[in-house]
Amino acid sequence: MAIERALIVFIILSIVSLLADITYEGARSISGPYLELLGASLIIAGGVSVGELLSYAFRFIGGIVAFRLASSLAYWSLLILGYIINLVAVPLLAFAGSWEVAFALYMVERIGKGFRVPIRDTIIAEVSTGIGRGKAFAIHEFLDQIGALVGPLIVAYAITSTGGSYSMALLILGIPAMLSIVALFTASAMYPKIRSASRIEGGGARTLPRGFYLACLAVGLAMFSFIHWGQASYIAFSLGWKNVALLYALAMAIDGLVSIPLGVAYDSLGPRILLVIPIATLLSTIALSHGNILVFILLWGIAMGALEVLPKAIVAELVDERARSLAYSILFLSMGLGWTLGNITLAYLTLESTLSLILVLVASLASMAIILRLR
Question: Whole-model pTM?
Answer without folding.
Answer: 0.84
